[in-house]
Amino acid sequence: MPAELVPIIVIVAGVVAVGVIVFGVVSVRSERDLVEERLGRYEEGYQAFVDLEETDEKGKKAKDDQGKAMDVIDKAIAKRPFAQKWRQQLARADIKLTVAEYAALHVIAPIGFFAAGYFVLFREDLIMSLVSGFIGFFAPRIYVSRATSKRLLRFEQQLPDTLGLWVNALRSGFSVMQAMEAISRDAPEPTRTEFKRVVQEVQLGIDVEDALEHLLVRVESEDLDLVVTAVNIQREVGGNLAEILETISHTIRERIKLKGEVRVLTSQGRITGYLISLLPIAVALLLSVIQPGFMTPMFENRGCGWPMLGIGLALIGMGMAAIQKIVNIEI
């Protein structure tokens, strides 16, 4: 076999192996299993709802060895503080993974990034490949964070229309729960899924106030907090909920409009922050790709190279934080 083909074969094998592992990890838990698990956990109250990813033996008679291994790992780390935090993050992003599967991605991603850097990008430059592996460790967290942000943005943009649908349902003679059922049927995603979960919780015996609090845990939105507070107060003291929600809907629409205007006005500052933060790193990576080993002396020289790298990264972080503080205007 020609020596030139060995790295290519290793890369292809590595990519195929990673793909098979990821596919197996995700496909082990079918949608039906997830629904049964979550519905079964609603009965245990708030803590049970947050812990969405513990296994439910019912309906899981045929699982392969990989799935059983994931269950063992999931049970082993289920009560750890970081596991509970990861469950909450995955629930907010609506990503159907267990904590064990998410932890496995923290192992697979660095290996994949390191292999890509070592064999493809930096051509056997060990130091830059290690940097690539370090970046890969944070890749799953970045993906989950971006998915959460996008989902929250869609939910907040849909909230005025959701409240309009809620108001119309109440004025048509529907109760609060019937109105939420209508939202769970007619609203777009992700609003439909979130209100459907609220309805399912109430049907399983959880109080409406607690179900709405669970909704706030999954969707961290100030606008939604205002809506939930109004609904809870109306349930305690009474009043015309339709008029209250209509007023809140108008307020939220104006806030969204103002946020959009502020975002346009601060776009130049945000782009500047991204540019001055990512440009030095992008140039270093580009030079390493064009000329492997170009950045190696910076990492090998502890007396001069390490302090320069540390100071440079610190200044980049401080500059980015300062710009974000300036352009982040509370409304």
Structure described in brief:
With 331 residues, the chain is mainly α. It is built from 15 helices and no strands.
Give a written overview of the molecule:
The chain has 331 residues and is an all-alpha fold. It has 15 helices and no strands. The protein is elongated, with a radius of gyration of 25 Å. The N terminus is likely disordered.
Specify the number of helices. Answer: 15
The rounded Rg comes to 25 Å
Q: What fraction strand?
A: under 5%
Query: Which consecutive residue ranges, at least 5 long each, have pLDDT under 50?
Result: 1-10, 15-63
The number of E-state strands comes to 0
pLDDT averaged over residues: 78
Biggest beta-sheet profile: none
Share of helix among residues? over 70%
H/E element string? HHHHHHHHHHHHHHH
Derived structural class:
mainly alpha
Global outline: elongated
Total domain units:
3
What is the straight-line distance between the termini?
65 Å
Tell me the layout of helices and strands:
Elements: H1 5-27, H2 31-42, H3 46-50, H4 65-76, H5 81-93, H6 99-121, H7 126-171, H8 176-186, H9 191-203, H10 208-218, H11 222-237, H12 241-265, H13 267-290, H14 296-300, H15 305-327
Any key phrases for this structure?
Receptor-associated Protein, 15 helices, 79% helix, disordered N terminus, single chain, 3 domains, 331 residues, elongated, mainly alpha
